[in-house]
Design a protein that fits this description.
Helix content is about 45%, strand content about 10%. Helix 1 runs antiparallel to helix 2, helix 4 runs antiparallel to helix 13 and helix 8 packs parallel to helix 9. The strands form four sheets. The protein has a seven-stranded mixed sheet, with helices on both faces. It folds into three domains: about 70 residues; about 240 residues, Aspartate Aminotransferase, domain 2; about 90 residues, Aspartate Aminotransferase, domain 1, CATH 3.90.1150.10. The protein contains 17 helices and 14 strands. By secondary structure, it is an alpha/beta fold. The structure holds pyridoxal-5'-phosphate.
Length: about 450
């Protein structure tokens, strides 16, 4: 199989070589003799590959690098990838095509006219996309930002003054904490309950604690619906309600939800919904979304107010905290190209859960395997514990924990942190039933090979 993807890459690159000649000879494409030769040489090579494809019989390929030191990336073709952070960001076919077509620098800006703002561009239909995004997460307005973290940063910038307190989960992602710190804010952690869940009640207690200590209410509460450590579901509805009572704005962090499951921000009681394109919306990095309600639109998407003291220059309707335009190239167009499928796929989240639960039920038939995340699983990301199974083997194996990595690699499975056999995370999102069964069988096979009992 491996050779096929290599040949496809070779063929794609040959086509790009030809495209290069067209660029060099624009606009009339009148080729010199040299250029004609070069063009034809590529056709010939391409023809040879096509012939091999037709016969399904390949000569070798030594294509390994795109260019000096940059290897081809074939992880999604050669392997089943269960990397915790990569599953939801795998590109759709349409997104991959968009990357080829819109790769040039500011490629979104061909038809940028007054008022010169990315989210207002009609062709390609960025404006429409941004409106669809707001509706998609049940909010009034949205913008594409440079990853979820940029969404946190924009909200922090707009809402926090130096020394203001913002509450985060005890399982908060580092980038949220850094966003708060970067604007001089102080982050304080809401404790987990015994089930490792953030609730409205915990949030209320922490709000009161901050009020007692500082005499002021926190200026922001930001909690992820599913955390990145265990992918436990946190009580965002309860937190939303508590925040409403105190009139504290609530940021719903949907890095692990927006784009894989349905999200209705207003129903949750969120003032801001943040999502990650490259984590959960089948998009390239760096992409994300920030959505809000009419109430906060003018505040977080505030436009520039100052003017030049010498020139009197003003920058119109550029949005200050966004630094004007955000993702102005291929990643945005690819995100748009994926969107129809993303909008459809969230409706099938229950099937993804069914597959994840099936895998976990098979995985835990291996004696000693445990699940650290809450059960039953409500997300495709799960933290498991194999201290009493694979780690026992690792202790005696000459490759230590890498034995598991090796065994999985042999079976064309990748994405686990190399060398770990105690606790690790895996994500089955997007695998089909065949792949799920293959994955479960692979783990069971490895267990049996090392004489671990399997029920
Ligand atoms: C991945 C993740 C982020 C960061 O997302 P980016 O889009 O890479 O900025 C933030 N919060 C949580 C909970 C995450 O899992």
């Amino acid at each position: 199989m491996t050779i096929e993807i290599q040949k496809i890459c070779e063929a794609e690159f040959l086509l790009e070589n030809m495209r290069e000649v067209l660029r060099r000879t624009a606009p009339d494409h009148r080729f010199s003799e040299e250029e004609r030769k070069e063009f034809d040489k590529n056709i010939k090579k391409l023809d040879k590959i096509v012939e091999e494809m037709k016969k399904d019989k390949y000569t070798g390929s030594n294509l390994k690098y795109i260019t000096d030191k940059i290897e081809l990336r074939r992880r999604e073709e050669d392997f089943i990838n269960i990397d915790p952070i990569q599953s939801g960001g795998r590109l759709t076919l349409e997104a991959r095509k968009a990357m080829i077509a819109y790769g040039d620098g500011y490629s979104t800006c061909d038809y940028c006219f007054k008022p010169f703002r990315l989210d207002q561009i009609q062709k390609p239909p960025i404006h429409e996309f941004v409106e669809d995004l707001a509706e998609f997460v049940g909010m009034d307005t949205a913008r594409v930002v440079r990853g979820a973290r940029n969404g946190f940063q924009i909200v922090s910038n707009a809402l926090l003054e130096k020394g203001d307190v913002a509450l985060v989960s005890s399982l908060a992602h580092y980038s949220l904490c850094l966003a708060i710190e970067s604007v001089g804010g102080i982050w304080r952690e809401i404790p987990l309950n015994k089930d490792r869940i953030i609730t409205g009640e915990n949030t209320r207690k922490k709000i009161e604690e901050v009020r007692e200590k500082t005499g002021k209410l926190p200026k922001l509460v930001a909690v992820s619906h599913f955390d990145y450590m265990f992918a436990n579901e946190h009580d965002v509805h309860g937190i939303g309600k508590t925040c409403k009572e105190y009139k504290i704005p609530f940021l719903y962090n949907g890095a692990y939800t927006v784009g894989v499951m349905p999200v209705d921000g207003k129903k949750i009681g969120a003032d801001f919904v943040v999502g990650s394109g490259h984590k959960s919306m089948a998009s390239p990095a760096p992409t994300g979304i920030l959505a809000t309600t009419d109430e906060y639109t003018d505040k977080i998407f505030a436009t520039t107010k100052l003017e030049g003291d010498l020139t009197g220059r003003k920058f119109g309707v550029k949005e200050t905290y966004l630094l004007g335009c955000t993702v102005m190239g291929a990643p945005l167009i690819a995100m748009m190209a994926s969107f129809p499928k993303v909008r459809e796929r969230v409706k099938h989240w229950d099937e993804e859960l069914e597959k994840a639960r099936f895998f976990i039920s098979e995985f835990t038939k291996i004696n000693g395997n445990k699940v650290v995340s809450e059960m039953p699983r409500k997300h495709t990301l799960t933290k498991v514990d194999t201290t009493d199974s694979f780690d026992k083997i690792a202790k005696k194996h000459k490759r230590r924990g890498y034995f598991l990595t090796d065994e999985l690699k042999k079976r064309k499975i990748t994405g686990l942190f190399p060398g770990t056999t105690r606790e690790f995370k895996l994500n089955t999102y997007g695998l089909n039933w065949n792949q799920i069964r293959y994955l479960a069988d692979a783990f069971k096979e490895i267990a049996e090979k090392y004489k671990i009992n399997v029920d």
